[in-house]
Amino acid sequence: MRCVICNGSTIKKRQVDEELKDGDNVVLIPIEVLVCEQCGERYYTRQIMKTLEEIEEDIKEKKISLKEVGRVLKPSIT
Length: 78
Fold this sequence. Notes:
Elements: E1 11-22, E2 25-36, E3 42-43, H1 46-60
Antiparallel strand pairs: 1-2, 2-3
């Protein structure tokens, strides 16, 4: 398999954190996907996409409890 973005040939399975938004919050979902070692392009299977969509829906419906693990700060620009 070659990367569709950079044509690289080094694509490996990696553990990554997928970011889902919940209002102003970012929820990190650890998943294992194929990643191009040269440009970082990620390749998702249909099953992974379905799982992420289900998790996103569960977050919206408050079926998953979330734990704060850090803070994201933004400068106030006036």
